[in-house]
Amino acid sequence: MAFAHDNGPAGPSSLQKAFADQGFVILPGLIDRTELAALRDDVAAVFSARLALSERKAGTGSLDETLQWLFENDFDGYLGAAKLCNHLVSLHRLGTSTPIVDQLKELGLAFPSICARPLMWFHSRRLAKTERYHRLPAHQEWSNMQGSLDGAVAWLPLVEVTPEMGRLQVVPGSHRDGLLPFARDDEADYPLALSHDAVRDEDFVEVEVPLGSVLFFSSFLVHRSGSNATDTTRLTVNFRYNNALEASFVERSFLNPFSYAAPEKLIHPCFPRPAQVNRCLEDKG
After folding, report:
1. Torsion angle in degrees (nearest 10) through CA of 131, 214, 83, 125
2. Strand partners for 154
3. Does the structure show a pLDDT above 70 at 152?
4. What phi and psi values does residue 256 have, to the nearest 5 degrees?
5. 242: which strand partners?
6. What integer pLDDT is reported at residue 195 of this predicted model?
7. What is the C-alpha to C-alpha distance for residues 135 and 138, in angstroms, rounded to an integer?
8. Domain layout of the chain by residue ranges
9. Cβ-based neighbours of 280, under 8 Å, separated by 6 or more
10. Do residues 121 and 189 make contact, with C-beta atoms less than 8 angstroms apart?
């Protein structure tokens, strides 16, 4: 099956048509690889900073080795570093970059708005306490977003993803079926019932998104992770967007289900002490 790529001459109307018909398009070479390399360096720096507290030396070994060591020996540190990576300035800069925002507009989001913070995924069987952190089941992003009906996701790899690493799988055209039944009402992340007529296992196709390319897909497109059979971490990111001018979104008062609130009390009581604050300031002086 052929998938829509924008190779230069195609105009906005043809790109919008392909996006409307199959629910996704792949834009080759949209992001400079040096920008992705800088983002990977930021990720490595975060995990290396935590590793420096251990008996191992910071910066030794590959990123995969660092991730696995922290996962096995310092899970709290691993988890904290992974969460921090969702807040990297370089990651947010990428999600609001001109190439991505312009393409969202070209795909029909007249007024792109950020739905929630970006997500960075570290998919590896060696970094998974549950299958969700190794392979995500079939789902639709709209169940999480619940925003504009023409919401879109920008998904891209930070490393070259080989077939053995489990490429993303999609069901072309499934976005036209709207919101589909869930497998279990109490299940996190809204996995879909594969027995439903609109979601059959044989309908999933693997999409190749080379490093530097971006996959844009409808928030209603059914998709899932492939299975990573290697020891290399499948490092990917996705950004979710709403269209602030979509009629139902405006009528629903720009609903956003994500809750951001300050903690009611200190997580670490008695921290910081004045001496600790001053020591930090002195280190910078």
Report:
1. 30
2. 216, 239
3. yes
4. -135, 110
5. 113
6. 54
7. 10
8. 12-284
9. none
10. no
Tell me the residue ranges of DSSP E strands in 164-222.
169-170, 205-206, 214-218
Residue reference for tokens 């040096």: 34
Q: Read off φ and ψ for residue 258, nearest 5 degrees.
A: -80, 130
DSSP letter, residue 182: B
Cα dihedral sign for 112, 113, 116, 119? Answer: positive
Contacts of 80 (CB under 8 A, 6+ apart): 50
- Any idea how long the chain is? 285
* pLDDT of the residue at 84: 98
3-class SS at 138?
A: coil
Superfamily of 12-284 according to CATH: q2cbj1_9rhob like domain (2.60.120.620)
Phi/psi at 193 (nearest 5 deg)? -80, 110
Q: For the chain, how far is it from start to end, CA to CA, in angstroms?
A: 60
Residue 259: the pLDDT is 86
Q: What is the mean pLDDT of residues 243-259?
A: 95
Q: Which residues contact 152 (CB under 8 A, 6 or more apart)?
A: 104, 107, 109, 216, 217, 218, 219, 240, 241
Work out the angle at residue 14's Cα, subtended by the Cα atoms of residues 11 and 15, and round it to the nearest 5 degrees: 85
pLDDT tens track for 28-65: 999 999 999 999 999 999 999 999 998 765 556 799 99
> Is there a contact between 36 and 99 (Cβ–Cβ < 8 Å)?
no
Token match 């990977």: residue? 40
State the pLDDT at residue 260: 85
Q: What are phi and psi of 217, to 5 degrees?
A: -145, 155
Residue 175 has which token pair?
């976005």
